[in-house]
Design goal:
Elements: E1 5-9, H1 13-26, E2 31-35, H2 38-47, E3 52-56, H3 64-74, E4 80-84, H4 89-98, E5 102-105, H5 110-156, H6 160-223
Parallel strand pairs: 1-2, 1-3, 3-4, 4-5
Length: 224
């Protein structure tokens, strides 16, 4: 899997470089994409997956709140962190109501900044996993529903497999009956053959007796 990507936006080149370097140092497995133009950053944000967006609040081309609104309209699940040198409670509440993941004051504490980034990355990863599981669940639900429709249809209309099974069953029953009939015919034929053999032997025996009687009669005549 590709490394997660974080987009950082600030029109102050020096601060942009410092924030980018801090992120690359403490988050080596994260790909940092720096932008000094919020409009170019927004165009890139629309085209490619980003795990988190970090932006300055005060910028000339497009302020952080406007960038936050547009980013949330495009990808509502991506956490957005805003930072500024002047953050009051009203601005922070407004940013959070729009959907900001966090609002940090600069110069911010390094550990606080890295912790906020790590939490944002974990939040996005968890949200992406939830979306993936929901898609899989929805797809599985559609497959189960489709299978249920097929099963219901098969109860009212025999399908090809059922017809084949019925034909095989009928053929098997016919074969069983044919074998039974053939065996009965063979038994009767064998019984008839045995009776015929017995009658033949009996006829041969009578013929031998008659022949013997004829021979004896002829001998008697010759003697007389």
């Amino acid at each position: 899997m590709a490394h997660p990507s974080i987009m950082v936006v600030d029109d102050d080149a020096a601060l942009l470089s410092a924030v980018t370097g801090l992120m690359e140092l403490h988050l080596p497995d994260v790909r940092v994409q720096p932008f000094d133009s919020p409009r170019r950053a927004l165009a890139q944000f629309e085209k490619h997956e980003v795990f988190a967006l970090v932006t300055d609040l005060k910028m000339r081309e497009l302020d952080g709140l406007a960038l936050l609104r547009r980013a949330k309209a495009l990808r509502p699940h991506v956490p957005v962190i805003l930072f500024s040198g002047h953050v009051d409670a009203t601005v922070a509440a407004q940013a959070v109501s729009v959907g900001a993941h966090d609002v940090l004051r600069k110069p911010f504490n390094r550990e606080e900044f890295i912790t906020a980034l790590t939490l944002a990355l974990n939040t996005y990863a968890l949200a992406r996993e939830v979306r993936t599981r929901r898609l899989m669940t929805a797809r599985l639900g559609r497959q189960i529903e489709n299978l249920g429709c097929r099963i219901a249809a098969s109860l009212h209309r025999p399908n090809t497999i059922r017809r084949i099974q019925e034909q095989v069953s009928t053929s098997r029953q016919l074969n069983i009956k044919s074998v039974a009939t053939l065996e009965g015919s063979l038994d009767r034929l064998w019984h008839s053959a045995q009776m015929a053999q017995a009658r033949l032997e009996e006829a041969q025996q009578r013929l031998l007796i008659r022949q013997q009687e004829n021979i004896e009669t002829c001998l008697k005549r010759n003697r007389d």
